[in-house]
Amino acid sequence: MLAAPGYVMASVGEEAHVLSDGGALAQYAGILMVLPFLAMLLIIFLGKRMRYDGAEFAIGAMAINWLYAVALFVLNITQGVARDVQYEIGRIGVVGEHELAFELGWVVDGLSTMMFVVVTTVSLLVFIYAVGYMKGDVRVPNFFANLSLFAGSMLVLVAAPNLIQLIIGWEGVGVASYLLIGHYWEKHENSSAAMKAFYVNRTADVGLTLGTVILGITLGTFRFTEIFEAAEAHLPALTGVAVAAGLLIFFGAMGKSAQFPLHVWLPDAMAGPTPVSALMHAATMVTAGVYLIARMFPFYEDIAAEARTWILWIGAITLFVTGLLALVQNDIKRVLAYSTVSQLGYMVAALGAGGYTAGLFHLWTHAFFKALLFLGAGSVIHAVHSNYMSDMGGLRKSMPTTYRTFVLGALALAGIPPLAGFFSKDEILATFSHEGATLVMWLGIVAAFVTAFYTFRMVFLTFHGPYRGHGHPHESPRVMTVPLIALAVGAVAAGWVNIPGVFTGFHHWVENRSVFVAQEAATGFDLAALIPGVIAGLAGILLAYLVFYPERKSQAERDRLEIPVLYPLLRRKYFLDDLYWYGVASPLKGPIARGVDWINTYVIDGIVNGVAGVSFFLAQFVYKGLDQRGIDGLIGGVSAAADAAGSSLRRLQSGRVQHYATGFVLGTLILVAAIAFFR
Questions:
Q1: What does each C-alpha distance from 547 to 5, 21, 183, 346, 458 come to in angstroms?
Q2: Which of 58, 227, 292, 404 is the most exposed place for a label (fewest CB within 10 A)?
Q3: Residue 595 domain-assigned (yes or no)
């Protein structure tokens, strides 16, 4: 688009324009974080007794959250909101002159309210869809409890006013994704995929943690507003570590948002149920990294510009090389997975180029059409009982609603006007053009061609031609198709909130608590980026039609199109999995296993055996010393004394009257003598 991004960095109290505090609506926005966890607990304890296995609690809580999020979003649109609520829960140590406080709370501003709407909208529709998709499946209450944990953790992350709470939500999202990817834990593929996601993300999380620690020690605070104030002031203590901290935090974002070369976990994560894939790719988990970069944007813009260059190029490489991998996939969900990685690359590169609004605008539109495509794929999988496009074909007649909505999502992904993806992708390409990142712009245009090609390859192989599977596929139930229709509306219209020269308010809607976007209203399209982008999308669709539309090419002719060197490279995923396995996992597996075994044998077993030995000694002492000799001896002595007394008394009970009389007289004399003595 024509106008360039312009930014006014403003600390609290120095806003570029007056914003509302949001009143009671913002004051109690913490309810957004609480309700999903309450639903999770109710599902755990009562889910098995409910008609829909506890889905009622998950859907009810998310419906309330959606209404609240929309109300906040409308408030932000009409008034502009900047509200920061934090409650201290503890302090730790003293670092230099700083005492680090740990706080929980929520921030309500343009960025968070936009994300609240994205997370709650997609979550609500996915939850409803999952009622039909998971019907009769295994561990359904567990599934909905984990879905609530997933969405709730993302809301904790999005609402975070400081890095500590963000990390809490960050790790919660990671745990929930592990549980959901491994939902069918009996299958080796699922458990392996869950572990792979866990390991890759934990590796990246080291970077986020170190970056957070550096900022906390340097500034004595984890609050975003105070970090941004220090960055704007260019504090000498921060200047020396800013780039390192920025790169470490970005490394954490690379893991969550699956940026090259840490993208390898995301395609394997498709082993989980399809509703999980939709939620993960559209609103939670993978968008967390993009959100983190956007939340930290004032820091990168003010004092860590060198880190922003790395962000730009990692995103550019990702959007191109991972898009190519989608060309050779047979699993429909893996096509969409690599598509997500590529689209995340667009967002990351846009933020790296300084396109704050462009990156977030694409996150906004992508949420709708990617959720639609995943749920559409799930509808197909539900009908044909296979993920493979080789088992599909000809489904447009038997699944008309799924087909029509899926095509709308595909057109949006391909960037065809006037659908949502066209406007956001065009703005990203325009950002590259304006910021002088010409090479990145052309990578983005080529990737747009590739995106359109593999997207409509998927459409033609799935919905056109003869049916190649088994059984008789049929349309999904309404509980699954209604969310598809709702998301299709978003895939068409979500981009209309930022039409150049017509409706240009989106850039103010997403203002960060400490960054205010100025002079960014686009008055027209950037034709230098728009025309090549649209041509690339249309050319990709045309080529897919010529190659994959039924009766255009035989399978043998398609096979001959496989480029000898490139095709095997793509099939082996650039050999990255092999590199990580043979270069990292296998060499480390043996030493780590031996190290763990040594610790287990000589440390843990030593501690256990030592505790057992001490316990045995104490038991012997208590048994022999106290129990047998002490307590038993005391009891035996009392018993013997009682027995002796009884024997003596028995001798007195002789039955002879003269003995009783003698005893009575002697007792009386003794009593009289005692009274006389003590008088």
A1: 40, 56, 37, 27, 12
A2: 404
A3: yes
